[in-house]
Amino acid sequence: MKPRLLITRHLPDAVEARAARDYDATFSTDAAPVTADKLLEAASGHDGLLITGSDKMTAAVVERLPASVKIIATFSVGYEHIDVAACKARGIIATNTPDVLTDATADIALLLMLGASRRAYEGEQAVRTAAWKGWMPTQLLGIQVTGKRLGLYGMGRIGQATARRAKAFGMEIHYHNRRPIDPAIEKELGATYHATAESLLKVSDVLSLHAPAGPETNGFLNAERIELLPPKAIVVNTARGTLIDDDALISALKSGRLMAAGLDVFAGEPNIDPRYRSVTNSFLLPHLGSATLETRNAMGFRALDNLDRFFQGSEPGDRIA
Ligand code: 8YV
């Protein structure tokens, strides 16, 4: 008998085809976020769950999961939506999908950085609304990233991949991380380690956030820390919206203390702080970091690899609980 797998979201065709071949799979047809009650109801009669970052596995939800559920595989690298301690307490295995989305997310960090520094939103608007009356030497002047200092807050896989790309743009790489990275990679990137976030902020012409969500990073970029950034700095966020104090960022963008921001993630998304919508010096995307077909296929396959291993009686590669 094939294991019974609940897949909470519609996934790319190739991933669903493999799941249908190897599992007694239940596919979600829901496009909208699934509520906890609906998810718990749907989980009944399943041995495993393939969820996404939008499905909140809080302690209260994990505690109410049917006893048949032995594994939760999330289609994401971030796993702050899963209460790992609650999973462990119930003996439920949990896995994530690291590595496979590193390049796609680093690409989006660069897109945001360039979109923000070159005023892409305002340019797009000018073209689309026919406000563009012709080329002018002083129209929509942005900031050139070449020669500027990129500060990476968090230097894991995605931070390093972003640094590699930024180096090719002629940027100087600075980073803060719990500990310095492999000296060989540091040398390759010509990267400078900062033992404190404050020291990093002071040199970051462009600040890019790459730390996970959690109590340690909640509200990290607040008014006090924004003040440490060089004048007219740019803020890029592909990590999690909770790292930013929205009040502080919005007022620094409006006052011109910051030149611009490029944001792919938001606190409370998709219900973002509505004030962002009218901030013209921001370049905003709807959480597209890993949104390429190649990457979403790879994430799905990686989640299925973890499930396969578990149901075949061996250790899944990407265990988080
Ligand atoms: C996902 C992400 O698209 O992997 C992550 O942590 O933020 C994104 O790549 C999202 O979490 C949906 O699962």
From TrEMBL:
CDD domains assigned to the protein according to its UniProt record, in alphabetical order: GDH
- What are the residue boundaries of the D-isomer specific 2-hydroxyacid dehydrogenase catalytic domain, all occurrences included? 7-318
PANTHER family in alphabetical order: 2-HYDROXYACID DEHYDROGENASE-RELATED, GLYOXYLATE_HYDROXYPYRUVATE REDUCTASE B
Q: What is the source species?
A: Lacibacterium aquatile
Q: Which Pfam families match?
A: 2-Hacid_dh (PF00389), 2-Hacid_dh_C (PF02826)
> Which molecular function term from Gene Ontology is one that the record holds?
oxidoreductase activity
Q: What is its EC number?
A: 1.1.1.-
> Is Cell wall biogenesis/degradation among the key words of this record?
no
Q: Which InterPro entries match?
A: D-isomer_2-hydroxyacid_DH, D-isomer_2_OHA_DH_cat_dom, D-isomer_DH_CS, D-isomer_DH_NAD-bd, NAD(P)-bd_dom_sf
In what residue span(s) does the D-isomer specific 2-hydroxyacid dehydrogenase NAD-binding domain sit?
111-289
- Say which family it is in: Belongs to the D-isomer specific 2-hydroxyacid dehydrogenase family.
Instruction: Print the keywords alphabetically.
Output: Oxidoreductase
The entry's protein name is 2-hydroxyacid dehydrogenase
